[in-house]
Specification:
The chain is mainly α. Helix content is 74%, strand content 0%. It has one domain (2-114): Up-down Bundle (Four Helix Bundle (Hemerythrin (Met), subunit A)). It comes from Massilia cellulosiltytica.
Length: 124
């Protein structure tokens, strides 16, 4: 009976993995749309919150579904975003630097989110 339960568990997990993978293009698309609407001179709080929520969700769930590097990179972007939001004032150049990192993440994730991350020697 145990092996039957194990088989069911792993079948369900594989189904959830496939569902997560299928949802990635839409999730990354939401991040991309938010990024395109982002004004580094006047970043809207609602947009920052939306981006934070998407990154937080990716950071928390990616490794569970076999996307360890995606989760790690999402967590780093989320943490940097959180740091930026703690300051009273953030210059446009700092927002632009963060947005550039986000652009790399979205481009990479849209092609192969299980591949080595660009310029990441730790995953080589």
């Amino acid at each position: 009976m145990s092996s039957s339960a194990d088989a069911e568990f792993f079948a369900r997990l594989a189904e959830l993995n496939d569902k997560f993978a299928a949802s990635l293009p839409q999730t990354l698309g939401r991040l991309s749309a938010a990024r395109n609407a982002f004004d580094p001179k006047r970043p809207p709080a609602a947009l920052i919150e939306q981006m934070h929520a998407v990154l937080h969700t990716l950071a928390g769930s990616s490794a569970t579904f076999g996307f360890r590097i995606l989760g790690q990179q999402a967590r780093m972007l989320e943490q940097r975003l959180r740091v930026l939001t703690t300051f009273d004032a953030v210059g446009p150049e700092e927002w632009e630097a963060w947005l550039s990192e986000l652009d790399v993440f979205i481009a990479w994730g849209s092609v192969d989110p299980k591949a080595a991350y660009p310029n990441d020697e730790s995953s080589v």
